[in-house]
């Protein structure tokens, strides 16, 4: 089994450059999919308080030594305070059956509530305490990130956003790069769009003898974006991991980037209730 390449985050942790997304999966589905993924060599698992599957994910995690897997969770807007972040961490760690998390994210900025800077201070305290190895955000726009930096002097290590060739977010990625923030992609296969059947993707798949999903995941990984595709199918799990042994040309990367904006409005599928 070949090892997944890694990226070093700004505070020093090492994160695999592709992972498994676990939404939507219940505890039983998550236990099954995560176990299979770990068997296949996945070493980054993405869950969240909101997915209600941390117990199932945790059961599967027992199958590998703790220090060999990078575990990410996220917390809801209810916990946007310094103490709240600590409570959210404790709840996730207990459900997952782990003593520390590799990465904890604020799931959404919820600017209407305007407490995400307090949540961020809570994450900084958790990292200082060694309970969380890396800290980050999800669905934060550059203005939200800038505010965190201005008010705390600490930039997130990762920002997880909806991203694929049809939502390429070039300006956001540029902002991330400038501040040492790794871009993680949710819906990296363009869920809810016809990305995988687009002729540009299909032609490249044919040219390289790969699947459309692999072409799209290569567009991401080749540009240092960390995708977390979700699959509950053993074949597709294996396929999604095998994207580091071919390279798209610069023109092909551009042709895929040109699909930006061709899909309907972003799904923002798991925003509700956060
Ligand atoms: N931070 C956030 O706010 C947020 C929001 C949404 C999602 N997420 C995270 O991101 C993860 C991934 O996003 P997502 O699930 O929305 O979208 P996605 O990974 O782009 O797409 C998943 C869908 O594609 C199918 N699929 C997987 N591999 C495939 C392949 N190689 N070829 C064709 N189809 C394939 C899956 O079905 P099968 O299972 O049948 O393979 C599933 O229906 C989630 O699981 C979650 O962890 C985060």
From TrEMBL:
The scientific name of the source species is Kribbella pratensis
Q: Which residues form the active site?
A: 51 (proton donor)
Site (Lowers pKa of active site Tyr) found at 74
Q: Name one Pfam family in it.
A: Aldo_ket_red
What taxonomic lineage is listed for the species of origin? Bacteria, Bacillati, Actinomycetota, Actinomycetes, Propionibacteriales
GO molecular function terms here?
oxidoreductase activity, acting on the CH-OH group of donors, NAD or NADP as acceptor
Family, per the entry?
Belongs to the aldo/keto reductase family.
Q: Name the domain of life this protein comes from.
A: Bacteria
Q: What is the protein name for this chain?
A: 2,5-diketo-D-gluconate reductase A
The NADP-dependent oxidoreductase domain, residue ranges: 18-258
The record's section on InterPro entries has: AKR, Aldo/ket_reductase_CS, NAD(P)_OxRdtase_dom_sf, NADP_OxRdtase_dom
Tell me the residue numbers annotated for binding substrate. 107
